[in-house]
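ok, trying the design again with the full structure, not the truncated one.
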């Protein structure tokens, strides 16, 4: 059984690996069929390989700070509040994670401050809706 501590550790590993651009470690936190949903840009990414590549290619020098992690008692979901720093700009976001039976992240939904159009160049990795 996955505990809330396990989920918190998985999410911390996910964000630390993303911040360090350690894509091998980042990938270990993800289920093979991970589903990433980004409502503001109406984009969806299916599968670990595409999602890792999406993050690897994401433009800009960004840094993330995890402000709060809340895990459910059933050991399946986590909500995270973060602050991203991109140059002088700070962006606050909320992220929802769902986990599979092995404790890997199976779904991610990111909510950013406001809707925006996605940067060009990632069309081959995402579906628009």
């Amino acid at each position: 059984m996955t505990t809330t501590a396990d989920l918190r550790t998985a999410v911390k590993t996910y964000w630390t690996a993303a911040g360090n651009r350690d894509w091998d470690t980042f990938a270990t936190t993800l289920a093979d069929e991970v589903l990433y949903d980004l409502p503001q840009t109406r984009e969806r990414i299916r599968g670990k390989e595409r999602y890792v590549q999406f993050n690897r290619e994401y433009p800009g020098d960004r840094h993330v700070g995890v402000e709060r992690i809340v895990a459910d008692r059933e050991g399946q979901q986590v909500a995270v509040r973060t602050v991203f720093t991109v140059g002088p700009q700070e962006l606050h976001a909320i992220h929802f994670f769902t986990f599979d039976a092995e404790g890997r992240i199976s779904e991610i939904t990111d909510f950013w401050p406001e809707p925006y159009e996605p940067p060009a160049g990632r069309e081959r990795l995402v579906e628009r809706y």
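Keeping the full-length input from now on. Residues 66 and 125 are 26 Å apart (CA to CA).
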